[in-house]
Amino acid sequence: MLGMIRTAYAYRGFIFSSVRNDIVMRFARSRLGALWTFIHPLSQVLIYTVILANVLSARMPGVSGQYDYALYLLAGFVPWALFSEVLQRSVGVFIEFGPLMQKVVLPKICLPIIVALTALWNSLVMTGLTLIAYVLVGRHPSLLDLLWLVALLGITAVFATGLGLIFGILNVFFRDVGQVVPIVLQFLFWLTPIVYAVSIIPEEYRHWFEYNPLATLVEAYHAVLLFDTPPDIGGLAIVAMIGVVSLALSLVLLRRANQDMVDVL
């Protein structure tokens, strides 16, 4: 594992240049550039706001102002966008770069790092624009809120990268994994309190959300951005631990499957 970390550091120039190229090529010849990172989730926020605001906002404590439901959605879409992008891109990253790995000696650990850093950059852009939206409607996050956001983005990135790398390795040998993950993400979106609050769920079913680490993350973003309260530190510690364990497990799997992956690809 330490060898992989040293290898990634040795190839840091390749990693950062790949991240830069990925970002540049994504918005090449685009007039709005990185704004598209925010426009896509913003369009979803507008759709849900128009369709669900009148139905849900009245039943959500602390979410009753003119813009509160839209702000609630924005806070939830920040971690969801980061998590889903890392997971979806990680699942197919080894297959995507398979022909290159067969021709060039390329440490495989570099690929998920490139995916994670690119997604994290996109998330930082979206988070910054979200904060601007909050300021425009009269909400001013404190310095402590910003520090919490940095920590939450880090935990989300580690958690998503660990799971994404595991699924990416499995997808090389079992291609059905790449078909299943998008379906699971659709269900996970609605099983996570992004467009609704846990408080509107019947009490006998609320305990199930304790088994969804992403629900803990999303509620932490809501607490910091919308309700100006500290997140559940105990819950976040568990999510961070799951992320670290899954990341360590994925590195072990990557090391063991290293040569077999090249042969299969």
UniProtKB/TrEMBL annotation:
GO CC terms in record: ATP-binding cassette (ABC) transporter complex
Superkingdom of the source species: Bacteria
Entry's Gene Ontology BP terms: lipopolysaccharide transport; polysaccharide transport
InterPro entries in alphabetical order: ABC2_TM (IPR013525), ABC2_TM_bact-type (IPR047817), ABC_2_transport (IPR000412)
Membrane-spanning residues: 35-57, 69-88, 109-134, 146-173, 180-201, 233-254
Keywords, alphabetical: Capsule biogenesis/degradation, Cell membrane, Membrane, Polysaccharide transport, Sugar transport, Transmembrane, Transmembrane helix, Transport
Major localization listed first in the record, in broad terms: membrane
GO molecular function: ABC-type transporter activity
UniProt domain ABC transmembrane type-2: residue ranges: 32-257
Family: Belongs to the ABC-2 integral membrane protein family.
The keyword Lipid metabolism appears for this protein: no
Locations listed in the record: Cell inner membrane; Cell membrane
Name the record gives this protein: Transport permease protein
Membrane topology: Multi-pass membrane protein
Record keyword Transmembrane present: yes
